[in-house]
Every structure is written in C-alpha cells, then in structure tokens.
Amino acid sequence: MVSRRALAFWGIVFVVLLALPQAAIALNQAFYVDLVRRAMILAIAAASLNLILGYGGLVSFGHAAYLGLGGYAVGILAFHGITLGWVQWPVAIAASALVAAAIGAISIRTSGVYFIMITLAFTQMLYYLAVSLDMYGGDDGLRLRTPSGFSGLVDLGNGLAFYYLVLGVLLLSLFTIHRIVHSRFGLVLRAAKSNDARTRAIGFSPYPYRLAAFVIAGAICGLAGALYANHTRYISPDFMSWVQSGDLMFMVILGGMGSTAGPLLGAFALILIEEVLKGWTDHWQVILGPLLVVSVIFFKRGLAGLLDKPDA
Amino acid sequence: MTVSLVLEQLLNGVQLGVMLFLLAAGLTLVLGIMNMVNLAHGSLYMVGAYLAIAATQWSGSYALGVLGGLAGTLLVGMLMEVVALRTLYDRDHLDQVLATFGLILFFNEATAMIWGRTALFSSLPSWLQGSVQLLPGWHYPVYRAAVIAVGLAVGVLLWYVVTRTRLGMLIRAGASNRTMVSALGVNIRLLYTVVFGFGAALAGLAGLMAGPIYTVQPGMGELILIQVFVVIVIGGIGSIRGAFVGALIVGTVDTLGRAFLKPLLALFLSRPAAETAGPALASMLVYLLMAVVLALRPAGLFSARNA
Q: What value of ipTM does the predicted structure carry?
C-alpha cells in the first residue's frame, strides 16, 4: 500500500528533523532550529488547510483566522494570568473549532468564487476585531511573557524541548489527517470534491461532511496557532492577515494538493525561498510575487508530485 | 447628534459607496464574463492613485494628472491581462487566486521601491478645495461632492453602455453564456481585453479619487478590495446593478456604523463597554451584513447567473 519510495521519504524526513537541532548546534547555527520550528508549525497549519482544500475541494482563503484564534486564545488567557498549557491549548482548539463551525455553516452553503470571497471576508472581520481590541494591544499585538506551562513535563522556554514537541505534534497531525482522509468519512469528502451530484445520487449529502472537515481543519490550525504564539512569543492581528491566509494556501499548492507530504514540503519550500530572497534584498517580495505566478502557471502538481512515479 | 451631522455622514457613506462601486463594477464584470477572480484588482486602484500623483507633480496640472492616472492604469491593466491573466482563464479559481496573490506582492513591493513606504498626499486644485453650500446653512466639502457626482455619472454611463450599446449586449451575453457568444463568431479574446482594460480604468479612477481623501501607500488596494468582495457577494456576481446597490449599502452601513455605533451603544451600555464594543462592532458590521444576506439569498441580491 505504502510505496517504497514514500516509505524512504518519510524515513529521511523523520531522521533529518530529529537530528537537525543537534547538527545545527554543533555547527553553531542555532538560528536554523528556530527557522525549522517555524516551518514545522506552519506545516501543521498548511496540513489542516490541505484537509479541506486538497481533499475537500473547499478553497478557503481565510484559514489564517484559526492561526490567529489559537494564538489569541493563548495570549489572552496568559494576559489574565492563566499560563497553564493544559487549559490554554484545549481552549485554543475549542475556540477555533467553534468559530470554524459558525463560519463554515454559512460559507459552505455557497460554492466557487462566493466561498473564496466569504471565507476571506470573515477572516478579515476577525482581523479587524483583533485590531479593535485595545485591551489586548489592538494593532500592536500582545506579548506572551511566559510560555504555556505543562506542569514541568515539557518546558517551552527550552528551545530544544519545544522543537521536539512541535515535531511530535506535526507528525501526529499529519498522521491524524492521513487517517481521516482514508476513512469512510474521508472517502465521502473526496467523493464530494470529485463529483458533487453523484455523491448526492448515491445517498450522501456533502454538507455535513464538508462542515465536519472544516471544523476539524479549524481545530488543528488552532493548535498550530497556540504553538505559533509560543514560538513568536508575540501575538498580533497579522497572525490572521489575508497575506498569511495566502501564504498557507501557497504552501499547500506548492507542496502538492491532496497528498500527506505536500503541506510539509510546501511550508519548508516557501520559508526556504523567503529566507534566501531576504538574504539578497529587502525588496524580496518583488521577486517572490512573479515566482509564485510562474509556479502556479507551470508547476501544476507541486513538489509532492515528484515523489510518485509519473506512470504509476 | 444633529440632523446635519447625520446628513453629512450619510453623504460620506454614499461617497465611499460610489468609490466601492467603481471598483466592484470592473471586478464583477471580469468575474461574470471571464469567470476570473482577480485579486490584483486592488493593485490597479493603488496604481491609479500613484500614477495620478506622479503625473500631477510632473506636469503641474491636476487635469493632466487625472488623465495620466486613467491612461496609465488602463495600460497597466491591459498589460497585466495579456502577460499573466490570459493564461489563467481556463484554470480553476484556486490557481487564479494564487497567481493574482503573487501579482499583489509584486505590485505592492514595486510601488514601495519606486515611491517608498511612507504615505503620500495628493494636492487638489483650488476649485476643488473648500466646501459648498448644499442646503441653506449646511456645507459639505466640494471634493467629496465631486466624487459622488463623478461616481454617479460613471454609473449612468455604465448603465447606458451595458444596456443600450452593442458592446454592452456582448458583455451581457458573455456573462450569461460565454461559449455561446464565441460560437456566434464574436472575438472573445478581444472582448476580454477590452472589458479588462475598462475595469482597470475604473479601478484607477477610484484610486486617483481616493488619493486626497485616504492615505496613498503600498497595500492600500487590499484594504478596500476585501470590502469590494463584500459588495459583490451582497450584490451578486456579474451584475452591475447588484454592484451599485451593494456598494451603496456597504458604503453607508460602514460609514454610519463607524460614526454612530459608539454613541448609540452608549445609550444602552456603560460608557467603557460602549467604548470597546462600538469600534469592534462597527468594523465587523459589513461582514455581519454579508452573512445575513448570504443566509437569506446565497447567490446575492441580483445574481446575473441564476436570477
């Protein structure tokens, strides 16, 4: 079932990510631990988007909303003195799931362009809501003074421990999404993407399946937001800016839609490209923009497409 | 809260509304006819604002500046269509969104490289400064009144072109069935480029009119673009009439909400609560409106597709 090539790929990914911090520290390049940790967190967010975008065909242009909700849940609870991660993270997940349920319930009634614009608009609404919350920093955002505490089990203040926690969450998320996609539920979700009418004809109404997937994706992305807040130690409305949503979409597409490895590859590729360009010039976006346009026009299958044999 | 204050904010709302309409008209046509989502439409708005300022400074004449802004945006828009967007018409919306997202990054950064990141201010000729007496004892800024007049005039012109001319007939036909139109021997490619250039010029017009009222800086296009999306969702894709009605609704609701929600809430809530809830609710108001419209009519108020 799992091809030898895929098995080798995941083996390499696991070993590299596991050994990377030690190697980076040995080479005195601790900066890369930080960079890869950020890439992994965004890969979790991208993977959750892939569940609805790649497998469900729901082009959500507002997925950064849940990154922000997760982040703000942690930030606001910490602001009020609740620094316990056992409380913060479930709240982050639950809040994201709840908002995803509300946004999804309205958005999924529509399709096509409407869906794209509505998800974008709702996220923008949350963005402005965050901007208007003067109590929590408004435009400037909110500092996270103490990272989420886990009763001494994991210390997020320790860069290495946090790195391995993120790696664990990443692998767990990818595995969970993989299992969801290949379950009976995932089969209906994928069927509805490829042919809505036939799915109805064989007796499944796509709406509840899509909504459930939308909520699950929101919840996982909320968790990524909680991680991201601990990573940056800072939460600002920019967490849910439309550029962030666009970045997440690009990670999914660049890596390859509807594949388990795609979001991981896409997140790493995009962050790597950004870092390289930033090293060249301050005006790196002037290069990144056309690069993205070209990649959309010519590079249809994404990086994960390179993993499968072309004739298979 | 006096009557004149309400009236003034109402007019400000109409002024924002006509601006949104100029943007929404081009976007909804491109969406309706070419089935193309163009996020970079906001970039054209920004290009219009910058080019007008540059042309005004270069020529020293406001009229030439306006003309330069319009012509420049028309050219940039057509160039954008021929170079990048044309290849995307047959792709799905996802690819279109991503590619035009890339274009936005490019346009914003290129603008920052040329003109810097700090906000620019455009100057007005003396005959557009000051205020005009609309009712006895009640004044309104000349410039904002002029924006409303131009917006309404363009609206009438668009209505005439779309409903009374051959080009308009093709546009309407294209919006309802583009395969049939091309089967009837219409050069659909040329029609697309013309419509796109048309829409770009309208966006440029909105941008250069926005210059003296709002700040001109990189990224200005996206802030308004998302409101334009709300307009189109409310009005219905492909419908100029829907864009007009939607734009006026969004413009007035947004402006009135920002002006009066806080004092209004203060009547029911404590002052600090109103201070917090007022701005928060005001910034969410148009999106909530959109949610309500969608819940009642998922295809918008005046959809061209399935009316």
A: 0.84
Phi, psi (degrees; rounded to nearest 5) at A36? -70, -35
How far is residue B241 CA from its own chain's centroid?
14
Q: For residue B240, which of B170, B175, B153, B166 has the smallest C-alpha distance?
A: B175
Instruction: Report d(CA B61, CA B67) in Å as an integer.
Output: 10
Say how many C-beta atoms besides its own lie within 10 A of residue A27's C-beta.
9
Instruction: Return the domain boundaries, chain A.
Output: 27-242
Range B279-283 contact pairs with CB under 8 angstroms and sequence separation of 24 or more: B279/A132, B280/A129, B280/A132, B280/A133, B281/B257, B282/B254, B282/B257, B282/B258, B283/A125, B283/A128, B283/A129, B283/A131, B283/A132, B283/B258
Per-residue confidence (pLDDT) for residue A285, from 0 to 100? 85
Residue B171 main-chain phi, psi, to 5 deg: -60, -45
Higher pLDDT: A49 or B215? It is A49
Q: Where do runs of H (alpha helix) occur along chain A? A: 4-26, 31-50, 64-79, 85-107, 112-132, 159-181, 184-194, 196-201, 206-232, 242-255, 262-280, 285-298
What string of H, E and C letters represents the secondary structure of A292-303? HHHHHHHCCCCH
Name the residue of chain B whose CA is nearest to A138's CA.
Answer: B280
- Tell me, what's the pLDDT at B307? 37
Rounded to whole angstroms, the Cα distance separating A252 from A249 reads 5
Report the distance separating Cα B115 and Cα B122, nearest Å: 13
pLDDT above 70 (res A289): yes
Q: Any idea which residue has 């942690």 for tokens?
A: A74
Measured between beta carbons, the chain A residues lying within 8 angstroms of B42 are none
pLDDT of residue A214: 95
Cβ neighbors of A112 (< 8 A, separation 6 or more) are: B93
Domains and CATH numbers, chain B: 17-296 (1.10.3470)
Q: Check CB contact of A129 with chain B, cutoff 8 Å.
A: yes
CB distance B98–A121 less than 8 Å?
A: no
Axis-axis angle for helices B62-80, B188-210 (nearest 10): 140
Burial class (CB in 10 A: 0-12, 13-18, 19+), B243: buried
Distance from the Cα of B185 to chain A's closest Cα (Å) equals 28
pTM higher than 0.95: no
Identify from A124, A238, A250 which residue to disrupt to test chain B contact, counting B C-beta atoms within 10 A and taking the largest count.
Answer: A124
Cβ-based neighbours of B220, under 8 Å, separated by 6 or more: B42, B45, B46, B49, B207, B210, B214
Number of C-alpha atoms within 13 angstroms, CB side, residue B222? 19
pLDDT of residue B132: 79
Interface touch A118/B294, C-beta < 8 Å: yes
Q: What is the pLDDT, as a whole number, of residue B306? A: 44
More confident residue, A217 or A147: A217
Nearest by CB to A117, which of B112, B233, B279?
A: B233
C-alpha to C-alpha distance for A249 and A54, rounded to whole angstroms: 10
Strand positions, DSSP E, B43-162: 131-135, 138-141
Q: In A291-311, which positions are buried (b, 16+ CB within 10 angstroms) versus exposed (e)?
A: bbbebbbeeeebbbeebeeee
